[in-house]
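does this look right to u?? coenzyme A version
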Amino acid sequence: MKNGELIVTPKADDSWMIRLDRNGEELCRVELARKRMRIGRSRIATGGVSALYTPPDRRMEGHARALMEASHDFLRQQGCSIVLLNAIPDFYHHFGYDVVFPVYRLFVKTDRLMHARRLLNVRRARKKDEPALVRCYNQCNRYRSGTLVRRMDWRFTNLVNFGRPPGTLLRVEDKRQRVAGYALCRTRSDRYFVQELNACSPAAFESLANAIGMRARRTGLERVHFKLPIDHPFGEFCKRFGSEWEIQHHVNAEGMGRVLDLPRFLAALRPELTYRLGKSARSENACLWFVTEMGSAGLKIAGNAVRRIRKRETDAWDIALSQTMLLQLALGYRTVSDAANEKGVRVPRLARPLLEVLFPPSPAMMPMVVE
Ligand SMILES: CC(C)(COP(=O)(O)OP(=O)(O)OC[C@H]1O[C@@H](n2cnc3c(N)ncnc32)[C@H](O)[C@@H]1OP(=O)(O)O)[C@@H](O)C(=O)NCCC(=O)NCCS
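got this back:
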């Protein structure tokens, strides 16, 4: 390529480091990963971008742009139809990204959590517990948008060591010593932080809440911050202790994404769209033709079956919007009525009720695409 030569180094499974080099000099580098992310019942092949870096004496020469464009091509070749990243402010719009996830934080006072009863045994997880914890994660999140499909050989070690100080992985077990839930916790400067929590019963929630409260008290921190989406059942459970939510919608920062391959993205959405139509009990015969700055693609709806079409049909509804707006709709970040009022978006009035069924609002949270 024009700027230099691309050197791709595979890291772990489905992750790579890509360097842009010229005559042995590193001009820019980035880390990429391929994940499978859920949007309800759909599994979307999703690229993750992290650690983009240009050495200071090589900045503003277009190397990050060249590498980002090459990264998008690379991820497309790997079958990814969308890409996500945790963004520094005011930079990634240069590469077609927009905000697609809010940031949710749940806060509960440490002393209140200690009112929860320790009904089940909670202990530190051991290495051999991890497959059962992976199963618990996948089971609890099986239809939750914004979560990743973790393979059975996936290990929590990456998350435990992600951030300083290292996290503690707690495991709660039922009376027959089977995994009933887990939480990954660590201290932060002014709060005790629970990075991930999943459990399958109220007794498991109660026991984890107590164990987390005890640990937070030992560190002297007065409040616990849980990283959870606003509809997570643990958030509902915590109402009894008094809780506070913080929701941030950033502009050009944090959880950002874009579509890489529009026809493939629409095809991957089909299982969830079919489910949503079925649940709504609507029976439709319609053709939706999405016209974006990166091309067009369509969906045909017959009864409650959804399929992708390659060519526009004469009676199709043309929906003009950006590729990021389509991703925002699919993730439930924006509503159809809000999107329809945005400059440059065109949604035929008659198509709106159907689109509202297909793209309802949803409190999805940004997954750890670098995990
Ligand atoms: C951010 C960084 C990767 C940019 O690299 P770069 O090689 O200088 O970027 P480019 O020259 O390819 O610039 C691409 C575009 O972004 C703009 N840009 C560059 N640095 C920017 C910054 N820090 N903030 C906002 N815009 C920036 C350029 O003006 C250019 O816009 P244009 O194409 O419309 O003219 C580099 O400054 C860096 O390594 N920073 C420290 C690490 C970091 O923050 N990485 C991001 C992790 S999410």
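Residues 107 and 244 are 5 Å apart (CA to CA). idk if thats expected tbh
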